[in-house]
Amino acid sequence: MRVALVSPYSVTLPGGVQGQVLGIAAALARAGDEVAVVAPGEPDAVPAGGLAGGARLVLVGGTLPIRVNGSRAPVALSPGASLRSRAELRAFRPDIVHLHEPFVPGPALAALLARPAPTLGTFHRSGASAPYRLLRPLLIPLFNRLGDAVAVSEAARATLEAVTGRRASRIDLLPNGVDLDLFERTEPYPADRPAVVFVGRHEVRKGLGVLLEAFSTSALEARLWVVGDGPERPALRARYGADARIEWLGRLDGDALAARVAGATVLVAPSLGGESFGVVLLEAMAAGTAVLASDIPGYRLAAGSAAELVVPGDPAALRRSLEALLGDVGRRAELVGAGRERACSHSFEELAVAYRRRYEALLSGARAGAGG
Fold this sequence. Notes:
Blueprint: E1 2-6, H1 16-30, E2 34-39, E3 56-59, E4 64-68, E5 71-75, H2 79-92, E6 96-100, H3 107-114, E7 119-123, H4 130-134, H5 136-144, E8 148-151, H6 154-164, E9 172-173, H7 180-185, E10 195-199, H8 208-216, E11 223-227, H9 233-240, E12 246-250, H10 254-263, E13 266-269, H11 279-286, E14 290-294, H12 297-303, E15 308-310, H13 315-326, H14 329-344, H15 348-371
């Protein structure tokens, strides 16, 4: 089967949606499908070996960071990017076009409007802001153009329903996947003492400031590895940079990121909200690391009972939970065991199988319609 996966966001920058697109593409390609990823991105940032699994990557232009849903999304708004996306899809001649966040202007929306083949949309967004709701008259007909649709979480489905109507309430959930091989094959980064790791963009909704306040006011003899970058980084470093226990690692990808996660004693995900699904939690579980996370819907969905949850936005509560977990070897072992089992049920291979069933149903329906 020839499958085109379309991302609205730059696949040469880290991000949740981009990670899912690339992971699904690699799993499909390993299973024998011919796969192309159509997306914005910078050519000089593509790995020398290309995409994992042998999927083809087609970059259609650069991006600009646009503020949306409490974050900054790297989207391609130029008409040229949309035109190139349509041309590349026509040249590839896919059997199925799989769109991630189909409403985002750029390659995904252009592909939805062109519909060169039966289309499936995956919706990730959590949170229907007032401006987003105002677009309802435009979004309903766009949603109706999709041959099939899924959401990655209850929050994403509820967001879609808020802007498109009750039909969205009936779409299926397909939670995000995780690259088990990456985290299982990696040698843990050696730590000279217990290590806590944060992975994420340095912006308010990710809650890094809450974690830094909790850690800096503790007497823990531990390291805090801060992975990532973002607009809050300068202010946070100015405030907490004097604490020698805190290491600011910047952006890490691939094996380097996996090594830090695997080498940590606890991963802390202190987000304040707006998380549709917590892939970072599953990655830590795959790496054999205990997880402490905010008690928010997206993280509850990802973690099940395999993480310690704490009220979001409360540094004192987070500090107490972190101190208790670092001091309880037995509890951490329980979380690690449950986490490995949880992560195994969310592999990209399993997710690709589920998507391929939907592709086949779409194709069958399209053929039946053509025959009728």
